[in-house]
User: Fold this.
Amino acid sequence: MPSTMTATAEVATERPVAYMRQLCKHFGHKIETSYDETTGQIVFSDGRCDLEALESENLLRLTVSADTDENVDRLRGVVGSHLERFGRRDELSVGWQ
Assistant:
């Protein structure tokens, strides 16, 4: 069984649920996504992104996972760049751990 690599980002925002929904809806036009009131998931061909909206903490937590470091890096770039573009007005910044 291949091991899974992950990276996590906690993005400060006063609108974590709205941004989580926007990401899921955007990617949902082409790939499988799901979300509810506080969590979401985006399933890419080579990995996935789990989203958690923590309204009480004004945080959106993103966790990307894949079977190779290269795929994790690619997903970090794809998800991070989209969120920063959507959140330009709010000056969102995605820093991965």
The longest helix spans residues 69-86. The CA atoms of residues 19 and 87 lie 8 Å apart.
